[in-house]
């Protein structure tokens, strides 16, 4: 499964409508984009740079779950009630991105159900891809015997 | 190619990770025939047995370089070999990557874990003959930073893009985290004029090949290295059979156009 980008997932007409809501942002390295549990009121599409996703674990530094890079979507919690971030995010290199106001995008999706379905499909594909990746990593394929049991020479 | 194990002395030993070592081996007597990148030798640890290990370096002086992960009785014996010890090799066996067939193409090397070892001599050849090829991309996935091999040289390869990603970063890792296929979006290649070389755990090979097909690479331009239970290495015993293929003879390097229909038959 290939990760769905906004460019590949949305037809030009609908992409243009969304881009009219977007604003270009430059974010310094080490900036917290959002905190787990906060209100998911924005999302980003990365142009250049890398964002790490992390999870709060009491008593230790938040472990990084995954990194997000060029062309990829940062944030999906804005699409589904209760619009609360499920993870934290931080820039680990200078970030150039398109930032979208989630309330405005949801309103556009409500006004134009066709666009709304396409946006939902886009985010759904992103989620499916990340779920598949997470499941693959659970297999611990690089461990001896791919984390299973076996006999080898 | 010889069916008899030929003694080789360990002349250099480089510890790659806690369970992986790279050995440079010098023939004690007559050298084996020349190896091509992607081919393998049967490596014999005296008193323990032999296992198939792909060549990970082909110096011009007749020495051979093999990278071994000590995960079983025989490979642990190979891992334990010290400089001055004698091991035995027979080979070369199997099909190679056939880099020359990718002349004029962008090159996409995708390695998972110790799968980088069989690809290393291909990368060396591509760097040495850079004008024959388009952009060289090297994508590496590993369990964690401590499990990365060839660390001293990966950063020095003159590629259009070298990406490294790990599953379990641990403290201090500032690089990419996630599956190796996500690096494909960062690599620089023209899908219709690219040849891909993929080696790693089979689910990683399948995921990479599916992604590359989706991006427009023809299946026969995706070369994968497959692993099965190789015993005789001469196409006689049948232990490494995959459908109509005997992978010691018809592989380990196979085009995805041939491999895909076979890998999805579970009875094989």
From TrEMBL, chain A:
<feature type="domain" description="Cyclic nucleotide-binding">
    <location>
        <begin position="6"/>
        <end position="75"/>
    </location>
</feature>
<protein>
    <submittedName>
        <fullName>Cyclic nucleotide-binding domain-containing protein</fullName>
    </submittedName>
</protein>
<dbReference type="Pfam" id="PF00027">
    <property type="entry name" value="cNMP_binding"/>
</dbReference>
<dbReference type="InterPro" id="IPR000595">
    <property type="entry name" value="cNMP-bd_dom"/>
</dbReference>
<dbReference type="InterPro" id="IPR018490">
    <property type="entry name" value="cNMP-bd_dom_sf"/>
</dbReference>
<dbReference type="InterPro" id="IPR014710">
    <property type="entry name" value="RmlC-like_jellyroll"/>
</dbReference>
From TrEMBL, chain B:
<dbReference type="InterPro" id="IPR012165">
    <property type="entry name" value="Cyt_c3_hydrogenase_gsu"/>
</dbReference>
<dbReference type="InterPro" id="IPR039261">
    <property type="entry name" value="FNR_nucleotide-bd"/>
</dbReference>
<dbReference type="InterPro" id="IPR017927">
    <property type="entry name" value="FAD-bd_FR_type"/>
</dbReference>
<dbReference type="Pfam" id="PF10418">
    <property type="entry name" value="DHODB_Fe-S_bind"/>
</dbReference>
<protein>
    <submittedName>
        <fullName>FAD/NAD(P)-binding protein</fullName>
    </submittedName>
</protein>
<dbReference type="Pfam" id="PF00175">
    <property type="entry name" value="NAD_binding_1"/>
</dbReference>
<dbReference type="InterPro" id="IPR001433">
    <property type="entry name" value="OxRdtase_FAD/NAD-bd"/>
</dbReference>
<dbReference type="InterPro" id="IPR050353">
    <property type="entry name" value="PyrK_electron_transfer"/>
</dbReference>
<feature type="domain" description="FAD-binding FR-type">
    <location>
        <begin position="3"/>
        <end position="99"/>
    </location>
</feature>
<dbReference type="InterPro" id="IPR019480">
    <property type="entry name" value="Dihydroorotate_DH_Fe-S-bd"/>
</dbReference>
<dbReference type="InterPro" id="IPR017938">
    <property type="entry name" value="Riboflavin_synthase-like_b-brl"/>
</dbReference>
